[in-house]
Structure formats: structure tokens, C-alpha cells
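hey team, just a heads up i'm posting the complex here instead of the shared drive bc the drive is being weird again. everything in one block, sequence lines first with there labels, then the predicted structure for the whole assembly after. its three chains so it's a bit long, scroll down
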Amino acid sequence: MDIAEFHEAVYQTVRQIPFGRVTSYGHIAKLIGLPRHSRHVGQALKYLNVDADVPWQRVVSSSGKISSRGPGTSGAQRQREALEGEGVEVRVMRDGGLAVNFSECGWFPERVGAEEEVATETVGTTGVEGENQDAGQPQE
DNA sequence: CCCCTGACGGTCG
DNA sequence: CCGACCGCCAGGG
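-- predicted structure starts here --
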């Protein structure tokens, strides 16, 4: 597979992610058929032009965390706003890192089109059980 | 050709 | 939950 084809495959796959749902770089790579190319999926999104109609914000790391892209860059913040804009709850961790809850919005179908809600079982509640989840607290 | 880097992933303590 | 480590693979210096 060519690099251009790979990028195109990434874009096509990302376009399949439903509104308000989130998946990981690794899973995109898996859907394409190159499970060990998670890093390159991120690179493909990085090379993405603004004009492209690709919901890049719906792709985060396998742990649910939004990649920071290094301090000084606003990429992570933009992604957060884009996600919240479509109703996805973004959790702010103690270190300032951002993350989503896969048990809520995760999208991990084995194949595109075979979405059978597999996510709600795998990660068994990231500690948001019963206890207060003050996600709506005044940050900053 | 060697070495470092990166919008990553999985395991282990 | 978190940090330390190691593995992966294509690009770039």
C-alpha cells in the first residue's frame, strides 16, 4: 500500500465514525488492516488540510486521552471544543490532560458497518461509578 | 547507513 | 490511576 493510499484510507475510515462517537488511532489502523501503524494514522491526520471533510476530532489515543501535540500548540484544545460541540463529555485530568470516556462514546466496530456497540463492555467504567463526577466544575 | 523522532500501543510494578 | 519501559514503522537529518 502506498503512502497516499494509506492517508486516503485513514480519511475514509475516520469519516465512518458516527457523530458524537470517538475511537482510537490504533483502531483506525486496525480497520484499515495495518494494526501496527497507529502512529502513522496520527501523522495522516496531521497532514490533513483544513478543507478536507474529516471528523479528525473523533480520534484519540487508546487510553481515551487527547494527544497534547506538545505545549504551546492549541490542537488539543481545539479538539476538546470540537468534541464538546457535538455533545461528547471531555474530562480534565489533574495534570491538565484531556480525556474522553470510552464507555460513553467509544466506537470500536470490528469492521466498518458492523457496529454492534462493542465498547460498552470492554473498559468497564473508568472510575466514574456512583461517585461524584465533577466534570462540570469551573476550570481555570 | 545510523540515529532520532512522533496526533501510538501494551505490559508491568 | 500513573509512570517507566519496550516495541512498531515511516520520515528526515
